Amino acid sequence: METVLSLARGTAFASTAAFGGVCSGLALWRDGLESRTRSLFTTIASTAAFAGFALGVLFLTVRTVALLGKPPSAINFSDVLFIILGTRFGRAQLAALGCVLVGAASLRLLHKPGLAAIVSVLSLLMGLFSSHSAAGGTIADLVINIAHVVAAALWFGGLSALVVAMAHQSVARPEGPSRRLSGFSNIALLLMLLVVATGVTLAIENVGTWPGLVATEYGWLLMGKLACVGIALICAAFVRLKLLPLLKSEKSVPPLAMVLKTELAFACLVILLAGCLSQAIPSRHVEIIWPLSFRLDPAVAWRTIPGSRLLAIGGCVALSVGSMAAFVLGRAGMWRWATIIAAAGVGVGGAFALHALSVPAYPSTYATVPVPYDAEAIGQGYDVFRANCVACHGQRGRGDGPLANDLKPPPADLTAPHTTDHTMGDMYWWVSYGFPSSAMPGFADRLSDMDRWRVVEYVMALSLGYEARVLGPEIATGQPWLHAIDFPTCSGVAPADNSKEGSDGSAKLVSIFRDGARMQHLDQLMQHERDIARAGGVIVAVLPSPSEKIASAGVLRNVCVVFDLDHRIAATWNLYRRTMSNPGFHDDDLPPSIIEFLIDRFGFVRARWRSDETDGLASPSQLVEAMTQLRAEPEINKRGVHDH
């Protein structure tokens, strides 16, 4: 069903674009065309308009049946009216079909090919509003979509008209073909620059990531479209640079017709694939199931795979030697051998480089993590870890559990930096189905899907906590990397209710109190909360329980007070407590009475203070200075903890 819809949409788009292009050619070249050729133009344009209308009706009918979800025999007239008149899709398609009819009438009855061409462009724009890529976007997205569609339609339609005109050129006016081809080439160059620029922008917006390009239907269609665009551009470049100069000096150039028809054929494929893309769900909104057994990650491969750098050098050498040999053979006119040598160099170099630049991957490598990176999920993940993983990996995840000495190879140290070399999807796969060539079993039959994701989040937080030892009281300007752990805060603190979602541009000081013995520090913060607020900061105090002084949670003198009755917040945030002087390698290591974290407005931990260390906690003036520094930082686009 979807294939039929995509083909119908693409063919309807191509037919309508061809109708507009032939009408444009008829309007622009009317005086230079013979009567027989003008009649042929009119016939072709009318046929294209009829095909576009018929295919548009087919698309609307099939999509209406699919949207209603009923067998055709159960559909009544009111259902059809609801889809056509009561939905944006129906209204857009109805308007598009109406424009095709108006365009055909303008051509056949009013003999106004220019008006018909304009109306055909309006038809294409109306159809745009029913596509996936145009749904829910911003005004800027809509403008880019419109520019892309108009430029592509003008290019394809003009090329169609040019091919017809060149095939029926006037013998009496031999200068006409070269003038038409030269004019179209100049216009087409500008149109294709616009098509490529807007296409790249739309691809980035709709695909989002390289995995989305490689592992989704939308990405496959897009790569096919890009390949066809590339071939069409090669044909156009050959015509512009080689054949057009010959046409200006000679009456005929035999290869020209074949090259133009080849360009038009691939242009048709481009338009068909564009129609399919308009019906496909963008990669950004699709769950990625990775189809390959590897993924490219040179930085990780060079650190973890022995000999990978040597293989990379070997691949570069093979590619260089093949390229130089192909160049020499090509200069000597031995094109067949040059092609063979070039292909061999690329093949051998690619084989070497692929192993050197890639690491193992699994179907879930780029899966979307369904649980948030928050205190509740990480705390539940620790419960799963303690019940199922401690025997091998140890209480602290260092690979020193009671069974560790009997296992070959030994269990992994989950606190080591290598943990962040893997995606969460990698770790989910290992938790589900076991780690290759090790004693680790799979837990897919014992743990729920959500529990497996939660234990993965706990392991990630555990590893990040050990890496966080380098964090201190000084802010490294413009270098955020440690993701904050969410937990519910006060609704009055910011428009968003979570600790790291500072959409109001506020930095947050999270103060975690292990007991109530040092409440004077909270009193000191409250005395300076106005200065902190003026610096763009908010104070979030996490207390273990109510007290006589603070009996209820909420906003107290512009300070957000949160009670951590089940100690989840303190337990998860204390994974980030480790410093260079208190690395937390021993089981008797306890969190300090007070630990504070400064979170920037993008959700990254930027500084940390412990009450039991020499520097102690930050003074109010230090906090104001740090928050002022964070507020002055420009907008950043850092990856989330679930991204890789």
Strand content: 5-15%
Structural class: alpha+beta
Low-confidence stretches: none
The SSE order reads HHHHHHHHHHEHHHEHHHHEEHHEEEHEEH
Question: What can be said about the biggest beta sheet?
Answer: 7 strands, mixed
As a percent range, the share of helical residues equals: 55-70%
Describe this structure in words.
By secondary structure, the protein is an alpha+beta fold. The protein contains 21 helices and 9 strands. The strands form 2 sheets. It has a 7-stranded mixed β-sheet with strand order 3-9-8-4-5-7-6. A two-stranded antiparallel ribbon has the order 1-2. The chain starts with a helix and ends in a 13-residue tail after the last helix.
Q: Which features would summarize this protein structure in a list?
A:
single chain, 644 residues, alpha+beta, 7-stranded mixed sheet, two-stranded antiparallel ribbon, 21 helices
